[in-house]
Amino acid sequence: xxQFDVDFHIHGRYSGGTxxxxxxxxxxxxAELKGLHLVGTGDATNPDWLRxxxxxxxxxxxxxxxQTQSKTQFMVTSEVEDNRRVHHILLFPSISAAESLxxxxxxxxxxxxxxxxPHLRLSGEQIVDYAKEVDALVGPAHAFTPWTAIYKExxxxxxxxxxxxxxxxxxxxxxxxxxxxxDRIPELQDLTFMSNSDTHSPWPHRLGREFNRVKMKELxxxxxxxxxxxxxxxxxILNAGLNPREGKYHLTACSRxxxxxxxxxxxxLKMRCPECGGIIKKGVYDRIEELAVWETPKHPWHRPxxxxxxxxxxxxxxxxxxxxxxxxxxxxxxxxLVRKFGTEINVLVDSEIEEVKKADPAAGKIIEKFRNxxxxxxxxxxxxxxxxxxxxxxxxxxxxxxxxxxxx
Length: 408
Description:
The chain is an alpha/beta fold. It folds into two domains: 2-245, TIM Barrel (Alpha-Beta Barrel); 311-371, no CATH class.
């Protein structure tokens, strides 16, 4: 058995809000520096991106493709939105399978030929029906976020997928949740949890900011399928990603001014911000509190560790106080560490911490902190990212240092 680091969920340049640098040669090179062995192509239901995939990739093994200028390998993936604004990830066994599905979904979408992440006039259950016809795998994307996730719309997987719920083998946690939160929900015990970047940018502080370490014999669609179904000793053996407090939707907060609220106060205010009038969005933390049956997580036998990491450029930013992650000073220190240890993932996760501290004492101390679970964070919410901090900062909620309910 071998171990492979995989980011299954990214977007290409034809999705809204993506960098024009999101093209496969650039993604492949940056993924190699990051330390990813396999990356999802994203957006494979879009015909322009499909052409780009076919022009840049060649099949290496069954369902896995290589880009000639890099060691990075790719599998064909996409994300789609159903008729209730719920997002789903698709993993395809081949380029031709994605082409076939595009032909079918074209009948149920007005923007599939324009947008990398199409809107479909189909339910989650119907999407699974179409995916099964081409042997693709389906699972919920960023399952708890308040705008486009399965649990913003439904209380159970079956409500979304109907009888096809038995076909669902994985669930993407999203940046605002982790294993320790999601394993309080009994219906998720059999599913493999994915930690993916969902990146719109190819640079290593975004690409692979969340990744999965997968144990299997080789990189192939068949092996990946077995791993996601935790069969024959294959499986995800590590989830690595941001602390959920860094996610944009971790806490309940105003989607306009980002003022954070205790959920009971937000309900009393009818989910309208008293400061700016914006909509208050329920945070992932509070949504999981509603869904949870168990007070503490119960991890099934196949569930691996979840390691909270911070992208290396952000580590160096914290160490230096330089806030522009693309600055030359940060890039120089990033280059030095990656050159010495081989990849960013090696620096963050695998190298001996004393060696990292010897190479860069300030950055090494921060890496040691998050490896030991000692890092502090200011939580995000309402669409504003949280952040790691070296200061004694806390989360200010409405009514704590802000105006209180009695003022209105």
